[in-house]
Amino acid sequence: MDQPRLALIASPTARAQDAAAALAEEAQFVPLAEAEVAVVLGGDGFMLQTLHHMLDDGRVIPAYGMNWGTIGFIMNRQASRRSLADRVARARRIAVNPLLMAATTGSGEEATFCAINEVSLLRETRQTAKLEVSVNGKVRLPELAGDGILVATPVGSTAYNLSANGPILPLGSAMLALTPISPFRPRRWRGAILPDNYEIAFRVLEPEKRPVAAVADQKELRDVHEVRVRVARERQLTLLFDPGKSLEERIFAEQFQS
Questions:
Q1: 93 forms bridges with which residues in the sheet?
Q2: pLDDT of residue 180
Q3: 101 Cβ partners below 8 Å, 6+ apart?
Q4: Which end of the chain is more exposed for a tag (fewer CB within 10 A), N or C?
């Protein structure tokens, strides 16, 4: 079977650049525009950045990550007895559906961004944010007061969502986590787990007094008044993992970490 054409994308860190130089002696690479698989060297943040570039360019190909960062939750390990081409050929494909955030600012500007991990609404000042939360067009929470709220995918459920005491979602759960960030009122509301075919909408209450920013992974839009979030099935991504080291297993194992 023919080997897929590989592109090599490395973080600017010294460790990733050294690894890229070593791999360049082992395998032949082509420009990203001609590749069938992107080999990404770096950490989770660099992988997210690379995936977002693909989404923005409109040409999405499978990504095989090798961890030359810190945690490397969505990356593969560095060392292996197998060649890179063999690892890519044997890798298991994991489909990842990003979120699509559509937001309107106080000036009337409309913007859309994708998020692979989460969409967050965060207060911009020391004033508590006040938000109305709707699900599928029905108001479910007339007023949430706190630092903000986020919507997380299963992939992102172990990131900011977990730090905000949100639930870990198994990869195949077809669910989203709706998690408040430091809620003040209602104090006992811990959030919700929603089917991933639901649309979630937020309306900022008292936006002039209590300005709110919306963040889709690494992209921020300030002074938002309304935000809608849904799963963007039309923009599906594919991550590649070594056999036995799948993303499902890593997410599941996180539930047993102390």
A1: 240
A2: 98
A3: 112, 113, 114, 115, 119, 214, 216, 227, 228, 229
A4: C
CB-side neighbour CA atoms (13 Å) of 231 = 19
Per-residue pLDDT tens for 61-107?
999 999 998 888 899 987 777 889 999 999 999 999 999 999 999 99
Is pTM, for the whole model, over 0.70? yes
Confidence (pLDDT) at 78: 78
Residues paired with residue 194 on neighbouring β-strands, in sequence order: 176
The contacts of residue 245 (CB under 8 Å, 6+ apart) are 76, 77
Give residue 106's identity as a one-letter amino acid code. G
Domains of the chain: 6-97+236-254 (3.40.50.10330), 99-233 (2.60.200.30)
Q: Given pLDDT bands bounded at 50, 70 and 90, which one contains residue 257?
A: confident
Active centre residues (catalytic)? 44
